[in-house]
Amino acid sequence: VRPDTRDEDAWIAAVSRRFGASPxxxxxxxxxxxxxxxxxxxxxxxxxxxxxxxxxxxxxxGPRAAGRKALAVTASDLAAMAATPRACVVSAVLPPGVxxxxxxxxxxxxxxxxxxxxxxxxxxxxSVAPGPLVITVSAIGEPGPAGVVGxxxxxxxxxxxxxxxxxGSILGRHLTFRPRLAEAxxxxxxxxxxAMMDLSDGLSTDLPRLCAMSGVGADVEAARVPIHPxxxxxxxxxSPLEHALHDGEDFELLLAHAPLExxxxxxxxxxxxTLHRIGTVTAAAGEVRLLxxxxxxxxxxxxxxxLARTGP
Amino acid sequence: VRPDTRDEDAWIAAVSRRFGASPxxxxxxxxxxxxxxxxxxxxxxxxxxxxxxxxxxxxxxGPRAAGRKALAVTASDLAAMAATPRACVVSAVLPPGVxxxxxxxxxxxxxxxxxxxxxxxxxxxxSVAPGPLVITVSAIGEPGPAGVVGxxxxxxxxxxxxxxxxxGSILGRHLTFRPRLAEAxxxxxxxxxxAMMDLSDGLSTDLPRLCAMSGVGADVEAARVPIHPxxxxxxxxxSPLEHALHDGEDFELLLAHAPLExxxxxxxxxxxxTLHRIGTVTAAAGEVRLLxxxxxxxxxxxxxxxLARTGP
Lengths: 312, 312
Hints:
2 copies of one chain form a homodimer.
Chain A: H1 8-16, E1 25-27, E2 34-38, E3 41-51, H2 58-80, E4 83-94, H3 100-117, E5 120-128, E6 134-143, E7 159-162, H4 173-176, H5 181-189, E8 195-198, H6 203-214, E9 217-221, H7 229-234, H8 240-246, E10 253-257, H9 262-270, E11 276-282, E12 288-292, E13 295-298
Parallel strand pairs in A: 4-5, 9-12
Antiparallel strand pairs in A: 1-2, 2-3, 3-6, 4-6, 7-10, 7-11, 8-10, 9-11, 12-13
C-alpha cells in the first residue's frame, strides 16, 4: 500500500523505517530533534531548511531577515527539546547571478541569530544552482541538567499550554520571532514539560503529532486559545480563531504538563514565562477535538503541509 | 574592496569574519569540518549539499545514487579530519510533483551510505519548492584516539601523498566512491598525517587551500601523479594528467606527512592503505608548482568553483 501522498508525515514515517534504530539513537524521528549518544554524552542534533518563495520572500524581506530566520527556526527546535544550542553549520544553495551583497546579507542575519541564541556558526557549504535560495542550518545542542524533553510523555489529564499568542505570523513575526530558548530552560529547570514541541506548522497540525507520539488525545477549548493581534489583522477567509488554530510559524512552545496552581503560574511569570492553558490531554488516542459553545468537533488539520501539493 | 566574485574561497573568507571565533570553536572555517568543544568532548561537525544538475543528474543516475552520494560526501569530509561518523540529519528540498518512489529511493541511498560509513540517519526535514532536488547531509563525528587532523600542520620538507589515483570521476566514481574512513583511521593511528583533506574540487584547487592554511607552498611532480584509467577514458580537451590534476570529486585523501621509508609504506599497504607520493611541501608560502621535464610552472587552479559563474 502506498502512503497517502497528501501527507508529509506519512511519507516521512514510511521512509524512516529504512534507517533502523540503534541503541545510539536515544530519540529519533517524530521529535523536534534527534538525541544521539556520543562519547558518553548526549548530543541533540537538528537540521531545518528555509526556501525563498516558501518560507520567506527574499525580494520583500531582504537577505538579512532570511539568514536570521534560517538559524532561528533550527534554534526553535532545540528549544522545544529543552536543549541549549551550541554550534551550527550552514549550507546555502544560491541562485545564479547572486551578488556578494546578498551573500553577505545572509551571513549578517545568521550572525544576528547566532548572537541571540548562542548557536555559533562554525562552518558551511555553498553551491550555486538554478532555483530559489535555499538555506539549511544544522545545529548541535546540549541537554539541560533535567535532560531533554521529547513528544512522548503527555498523559491523560495533563494541561496543554502554549507560551504565547497564536496566529497571523505571516504579517511579520515569522521572520522576527525569538526562539523560546529561555522559556524552555525555565520550564525544564522546574521539570514542568512532560512533552513539548514548537509550533511551526500550526496548532491544528502540530498538536496531533504530539498526541500521536504520546498515544493520547486532546481537547482544545476555543475560548482559551490566545489570539494574537496579528490573527485579527490578517483577515481573509479565516476568522481570528481559525488563524490562531491553523496558521503556521508561531514558534511558540506547546507543552503537556501536570495542571499548575496559580501560585506556580505566577512564579513562572516572574521568571519570564507566561503559560496560556489551551486545553487538556485525553485518553482518546489520536482524537483531537475543539470544544466550543458546549460542543465538541474534530479539530481538522489546517496547517502547512509541504507535500500536500505533490504526488502523482 | 569587494572580494573577487570569481572566487568561492574569497566570498566565504569575507563573510566568515562575521562569525567571530570563540574558545568553543577548536577548528573553524578553512578545514574540512569544524571541531567544537561540547560538554567536555570534541564534536566534529560538517554539512554538505548536493544538487540535481550540479552534483548528479537525477534522471540519469536515479534517486538511490543521489541519496547515497549526499551522505558519502559528508562522510568523506569527516574522514579528512580522521574523525569517525556517528550520526547525521538530512534535509531535502523536493521539486513539485515528486513521486513517493523518488523520495523513497533517496532514502534507500541514504540508508546504503549510512550502513557503509556508520553514519546513522537520525532525523531530517522536507520541503517542496520549484527548482532542482537539493539534499543536505549534516553529520557529527568523533575524533579518533590521536585527535582530529586539520589542514594546518604541513611543514616544508613534508611529503605530499594521495590515497588513490585521480581524474575522470565524472564517468561514474563521483557517485560510487567509498569515503576513505578506514584509510584515515589507519593513517591517524600511526600519527602520520600532519595536515589532511579530501579531494573534492580537484587537486589543483584543493592543494592551494591546504597550503594556505599551513602557510606553505608545494611542488607537485607530474610524473608521480597517479592517473586513474577514467582520466584516460574521459578524453575531451584535457590530457589524462590534466584530468588528474583538475577534475573534481576524486574523494581521495591528500595529506602532508614526514617522508616515509619503504618499510613503513609496506606496513601501511598491509593495512589497506596505499600512499602515492605526488610531491613535497616547500617554504614558498602560497606557491604551488608543477614540476615536469625539469621545469617548474605554476599549478593553475582548474577545479570546480561554485561561484565562478556568478557575480554582478
